[in-house]
Amino acid sequence: MLQACLNGARPADTPHLPLTPEAVAADALACRAAGADCLHIHPRDTQGRESLAPEDVAAHLRAVRAAVPGMPVGISTGDWIAPRAGRLEDMRAWVEKPDYVSVNLSEPDAPEVIALMAGIGVKVELGLAHEADLDRLEGLDLPHALRAMIEMEAGEPETVMPRAGRMFMRLRPRGLPILLHGFDDTAWPFVAAARDLGCDNRIGLEDCLHLPDGSRAGNAALVAAARQILDLRP
Asked: Is the pTM of this model over 0.70?
């Protein structure tokens, strides 16, 4: 499975970054044509700020679903988006719900967010950026877990990849699908690693701005390049 992560928490440091419901929907359509299977987006308000407010989430989901009917779409629940109480209140008030959300297990209120999603029938991607996140995973009730997501930060692949490998080996016995992805310098090495390990992968402007050859690109070109790598046999 290849997920397209269309915008993320990046500032508008690339002309390709989609920041409105219409722009996100257009990129979703292009990414589906390029080989993406599902989507991960960060909704924004009319000022371009990340938002989990019901009206902003609904505007993005409706636009995307109109453009790519049937394509699963998930959103971030990152704790930087809004203060804790207001963020949880916003999510409880959703009228238009995503197919799944991403929850970072390193965040203090991750168990509350996971429980909230179980209550409203939304699947959860479990974001694991550190080996300590695996310890936290052990004590959680996960009736709506969709997959575990090993998320590696930027850095030297030679340093980051062994840690990802250890996390993968600890996660595999749980039986959850595993999505492996990197960021900037580690993004493309982890596309190949995901292929070789039989993991899901994601790519898009949230994770990197450049093609493997170093040239800047938009979401659809990034997805097409990742799909080509994933379709090669190791």
From this structure: yes
